[in-house]
Amino acid sequence: MSKYQRLGAYLSAEHRESIEMSFADVERVAGTKLPASAMRHRSWWSNNPENNVATKEWRYAGYVTEQVDLEQQKVVFRKVGPTRVAEAATALWGHARTAATESPKPVRDPLFGAHKGLITIAPGVDLTEPADPEWAKIVDG
């Protein structure tokens, strides 16, 4: 269960075109504190589905973020069309979820583990050691 699932459920229940919320409102609705990075980095609020679990929740709920104001600690969630919501859900979870409270099911790429057993590292090899001894002198100074 995502710790921002309550935020997703709240947004799913809304039908407004845009919702302005303070970061404190987001915390109150989500029932959890926002990370420090949300207060300092605009990128935390990006609509990239690979960004964080909160992004997946607002995207699935049919909203995208815009007008992120770090100084005033406010964000605007804007409603997007239902087609984009279904596409976002499929892209995020590999299938469309049926309810905002449902947990996403992990989807593995069919090539996951395809290289298993193809690479063998000889005993005693330190992969963190520089391959060129001259680099070791430069790095270790």
Textual characterization of the structure:
It is built from 6 helices and 3 strands, in the order αβαααββαα. The chain has helices at 5-13, 23-30, 36-40, 53-60, 82-93, 133-140; strands at residues 18-22, 63-69, 74-79. A 3-stranded antiparallel beta sheet has the order 1-3-2. Strand 2 and strand 3 (74-79) form a beta hairpin. Helix 1 (5-13) packs parallel to helix 4 (53-60).
The backbone outline, from C-alpha atoms, is elongated
Task: Tell me how many strands there are.
Answer: 3
* N-to-C CA distance: 47 Å
Helix content: 25-40%
The gyration radius over C-alpha positions equals 21 Å
Report low-confidence residues grouped into runs of 5 or more. Answer: none
The secondary-structure class comes to: alpha+beta
- The pLDDT mean sits at 80
The number of distinct helices, counting runs of at least 4 residues, comes to 6
Q: Give the helices and strands as they follow along the chain.
A: HEHHHEEHH
Major sheet size, sense and barrel closure: 3 strands, antiparallel
Per DSSP, what share of the residues sits in E-state strands of 2 or more residues?
5-15%
Strand order of the largest sheet: 1-3-2
Tags for this entry?
141 residues, alpha+beta, 3-stranded antiparallel sheet, 6 helices
Q: Care to give the gist of this entry?
A:
With 141 residues, the protein is of the alpha+beta class. It has 6 helices and 3 strands, in the order αβαααββαα.
